[in-house]
């Protein structure tokens, strides 16, 4: 594995960083999340047209740039640094790869080019508490319980006598669920005993579809409630034997790598802001950053952030390590945000200061994609570390 960044990757990251510094400062973020969509549409349009961000990892045949997961992860590191409110995660990291993996040629031709141009936001619609399990991050996702499992809750699918699919049910805490123009809905079909979970395409303006924006802990990552009342849907793929669990797990691995890079970007920015503050804030006639106790705390935090960055970069080239990198990234972000609040003193606890935005991102990401101890436990199970057949080690 060659972990050296190419000149093109450095250019993408530098250009994105410069654009976000100018147009996505803390006040810009607060203004964007208060819009009906929850993000700045004009900035998202520039990111799509000038940098091709939504189609960064899509094939060129569908209007994308044909880059790799590593390129997308580096872009996510910069968007995480700015806490950019955007459809990037839901659209480019979760939804588009599922369409690429499972969609028919006609579905890919119709859906992927608008996504690559930034004209069509998409999202994966599963009940929020089950998202990490659906992506195979915290457990095995093949049983479909995360989508309702045929019991009450989740979304159910049934066929009409004419062979059309109809969906009914509800999913809460859906990323960009209130604003996405295309929903990829996970629904249980076939009854309780012999059913399975499939993915369906639902336009955002479908009859019988009701969507409501929900209050979220992290305002920069909007969530919505999706209610389907006998909504007509199109099966993603050409038959009902598609390997949905495998496709979701593959997307989960790349999503974990991107989320790890995003968390590292946010943690690094929180650390840089804290270092800059303690250099200028004086107490007893000297900067508080000159006190040994403060130096030690920031030095420990720097090591933790750099270790998480190394893990995220490794996962960008080998998404199989994504879950562990995500756990380390979330740990680093939570620690960096906590220290930022503490070392900013009284101002760090106020809603007006940006420190709380980083803390909320850390807490909300762990609720959606973790918790950290389950990410690590599932990775350990997959690696066979807890195999009961293994010999007991004696000392």
TrEMBL record:
<dbReference type="GO" id="GO:0050660">
    <property type="term" value="F:flavin adenine dinucleotide binding"/>
</dbReference>
<dbReference type="InterPro" id="IPR037069">
    <property type="entry name" value="AcylCoA_DH/ox_N_sf"/>
</dbReference>
<keyword id="KW-0560">Oxidoreductase</keyword>
<keyword id="KW-0285">Flavoprotein</keyword>
<keyword id="KW-0274">FAD</keyword>
<protein>
    <submittedName>
        <fullName>(2S)-methylsuccinyl-CoA dehydrogenase</fullName>
        <ecNumber>1.3.8.12</ecNumber>
    </submittedName>
</protein>
<dbReference type="InterPro" id="IPR036250">
    <property type="entry name" value="AcylCo_DH-like_C"/>
</dbReference>
<dbReference type="InterPro" id="IPR009100">
    <property type="entry name" value="AcylCoA_DH/oxidase_NM_dom_sf"/>
</dbReference>
<dbReference type="InterPro" id="IPR013786">
    <property type="entry name" value="AcylCoA_DH/ox_N"/>
</dbReference>
<feature type="domain" description="Acyl-CoA dehydrogenase/oxidase N-terminal">
    <location>
        <begin position="6"/>
        <end position="119"/>
    </location>
</feature>
<dbReference type="InterPro" id="IPR046373">
    <property type="entry name" value="Acyl-CoA_Oxase/DH_mid-dom_sf"/>
</dbReference>
<comment type="similarity">
    <text>Belongs to the acyl-CoA dehydrogenase family.</text>
</comment>
<dbReference type="Pfam" id="PF00441">
    <property type="entry name" value="Acyl-CoA_dh_1"/>
</dbReference>
<dbReference type="Pfam" id="PF02771">
    <property type="entry name" value="Acyl-CoA_dh_N"/>
</dbReference>
<feature type="domain" description="Acyl-CoA dehydrogenase/oxidase C-terminal">
    <location>
        <begin position="257"/>
        <end position="382"/>
    </location>
</feature>
<dbReference type="GO" id="GO:0003995">
    <property type="term" value="F:acyl-CoA dehydrogenase activity"/>
</dbReference>
<dbReference type="InterPro" id="IPR009075">
    <property type="entry name" value="AcylCo_DH/oxidase_C"/>
</dbReference>
């Amino acid at each position: 594995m060659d972990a050296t960044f190419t000149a093109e990757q450095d250019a993408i990251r530098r250009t994105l960083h410069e654009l976000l510094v100018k147009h996505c400062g803390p006040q810009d973020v607060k203004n964007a999340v208060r819009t009906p969509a929850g993000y700045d549409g004009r900035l998202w349009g520039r990111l799509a047209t000038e940098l091709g961000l939504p189609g960064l990892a899509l094939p060129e045949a569908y209007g994308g740039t044909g880059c790799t997961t590593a390129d997308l992860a580096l872009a996510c590191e910069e968007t995480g640094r700015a806490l950019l409110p955007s459809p990037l995660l839901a659209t480019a990291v979760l939804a588009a790869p599922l369409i690429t993996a499972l969609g028919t040629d006609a579905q890919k031709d119709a859906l992927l080019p608008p996504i690559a141009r930034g004209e069509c936001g998409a999202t994966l619609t599963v009940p929020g508490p089950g998202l990490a399990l659906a992506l195979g991050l915290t457990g095995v996702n093949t049983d479909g319980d995360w989508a309702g499992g045929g019991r009450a809750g989740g979304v159910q699918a049934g066929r009409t006598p004419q062979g059309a699919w109809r969906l009914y049910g509800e999913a809460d805490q859906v990323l960009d669920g209130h604003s996405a123009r295309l929903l990829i809905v996970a629904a249980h079909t076939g009854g309780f005993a012999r059913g399975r979970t499939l993915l369906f395409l639902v336009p955002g303006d479908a009859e019988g579809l009701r969507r409501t924006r929900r209050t979220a802990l992290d305002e920069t990552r909007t969530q919505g409630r999706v209610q389907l009342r006998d909504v007509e849907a199109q099966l993603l793929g050409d038959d009902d034997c598609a390997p949905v669990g495998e496709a979701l797990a593959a997307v989960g691995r790349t999503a974990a790598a991107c989320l790890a890079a995003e968390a590292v970007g946010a943690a690094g920015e929180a650390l840089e802001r804290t270092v800059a503050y303690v250099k200028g804030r004086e107490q007893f006639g000297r900067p508080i950053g000159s006190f040994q106790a403060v130096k030690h705390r920031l030095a420990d935090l720097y090591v933790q952030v750099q270790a998480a960055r190394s893990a995220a970069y490794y996962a960008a080239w080998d998404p199989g390590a994504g879950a562990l990198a995500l756990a380390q990234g979330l740990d680093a972000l939570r620690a960096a945000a906590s220290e930022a609040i503490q070392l900013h003193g009284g101002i760090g606890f106020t809603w007006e200061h940006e420190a709380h935005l980083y803390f909320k991102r850390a807490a909300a990401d762990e609720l959606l994609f973790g918790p950290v101890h389950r990410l690590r436990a599932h990775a350990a199970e997959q690696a066979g570390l807890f195999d009961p057949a293994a010999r007991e080690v004696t000392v």
